[in-house]
């Protein structure tokens, strides 16, 4: 089994760690296949309630492994096929009902932006930096960057990153909405967030994530129908019944 991405389970919490630190966690063909396979494995497992995405070494992810691309002898068709494998994993995570928090400790470049944005909540260290670099080497965005980046920061700022050699620091990423928090210990904070999901109404958090992620690409009427079905299904669960009853009782007590 590949060790390019490590999987650690602690009850309902799954941790995925990019583990090619010598290559700044750039995703090669083996790592891309591992990413897709783990996405399918975890999202099909009903015992997984939250996922932490982090990375070993000084960088979070430098995107695709350009060195391997240049030396593999493959063609454009090879790159297209590999991108499709990684895209399968990204789509699977994004459209799942499992909330994901990313801990970003260093540089994020190119397709690493898309992998990071597969997470629903991003915590960055003060030294984290974010850059595109696609056009610098004559390549175009992949790994969901052309969709996930403008969804996070807006079209104009996404174009600023993609069409200029701009590197933004963590405070700017926070201002732009690329990350949710900047803290000294992003790993600890990411764990805290994931634990809060697991200690709360886990299923409801997951469905809220799914509704927002999938809703951006569907007709409004379809989203409303999905919301109606989802809240009805949630209302019938034992967890929701207990929480709704407790909320109602507390409300009656305050009014008395």
From TrEMBL:
Q: Which UniProt keywords apply?
A: Isomerase
Isomerase in keyword set: yes
What domain of life is recorded for the organism? Bacteria
Q: Which GO terms describe its biological process?
A: fatty acid beta-oxidation
Q: Which InterPro entries did the record assign?
A: ClpP/crotonase-like_dom_sf (IPR029045), Enoyl-CoA_hyd/isom_CS (IPR018376), Enoyl-CoA_hydra/iso (IPR001753)
Any one GO MF term held by the record is: isomerase activity
Q: Which family does it belong to?
A: Belongs to the enoyl-CoA hydratase/isomerase family.
Name recorded for this polypeptide: Enoyl-CoA hydratase/isomerase
Q: Source species, please?
A: Microbacterium oleivorans
